[in-house]
Amino acid sequence: MLVEFGGYNFFSFKEGFSVSLKNKKDVSSILAIKGANASGKTNIIKVLSFLHSFVANSFTILKPDEEIMIFSFFHNEKPISLYIIFEDEDIEYKYEIVLTNTEIISEVIFRKHKRWTKIIERKKDKLIKVSEDFKDLKTISLTRLNASIISIAKQYDIKAINPLYNLFKNIETNVNVFGRTPNEDNFPHYKTVTELYQENKNLLKFVLNILKKADTGIENIKIKSISNAETTKKEYVPIFEYKIDNKIKTLTYHEQSNGVKSLYLQLGLYAIALEFGMVLALDEFDIDLHPDLIPMLVELFENKELNKNNAQFIFTTHHTSIMNQLGKYRIVFVNKDENESYLYRLDEIPGDILRPDRPIAPVYRANKIGGKPRIQYGKI
Fold it and tell me: Which residues contact 235 (CB under 8 A, 6 or more apart)?
């Protein structure tokens, strides 16, 4: 599970930030990020996106002399620092990296049983520290200063690195270095999703059940096998059934509303995340969806019977409908002052503005806790 992450001099966060999913009792499966447009919400998700891509895959996706696609606060020349803490089978791991566009300055990995212990330390092309169970790292070359030690070790097929590698691979986001990607780029193609549903009837039942609860009018989904005219390969397409005047009428995927299409694609991704215990971090996942659907989708990750493998859902949203359900321990607000972003979790707000016996949404709407744009009204 993801416990905490943050960064310094990263995009709009000049002085850094830290996001914790820990509450009083445990590590949360849900975290909502709210704030005004251009406040820096997406940049929080970018930390997870970058670490997922870079730590796991930098050796293969970057050429030896290629620049690292990461940006400091207004492109200043100071190094960028990022960190992330995972919990895996009651052991915590902390990964820290300091880097620029051209090189990794340092990487450090800690492990915690009862206390934190440094198990791997790299400074540029030198391995400074390595524990006995990672001794095979001494055999690898660290001359690739634009590749993480984990991605390099993976190329050398060092088995000991696999648990750490898998923690980063288990993150899925819909943003890249330039921001949120379109749904059709991030979510699986509808034919891919349909094939997944065809292979797993329980998954199709799960999707149909939620689409029914969402008041879409859909009675059933049947999957039809067709032959691709160009490739002659078998493909699967969904046929959506509706009851009209006690007769069954059908529509194709392309005839559905944007909301139904979005749900149909997203639910496949949610199902995969729930099955494999992934960290799913989505920027504005609720585009095309009615606000009343958001609590239902969040509940998928809160439900212990559905979420048996501790999957986590982190998301940005402008809707207030979810705030009272989540409470102050599972909401982070992002604000900006003189173009510099800063954040805070709602339980960090001092005083009794937020009380357990009062809903959060009215206090937010009254602009008493931040997270709203400071709009200047008047003539343009």
Answer: 191, 195, 225, 226, 227, 228
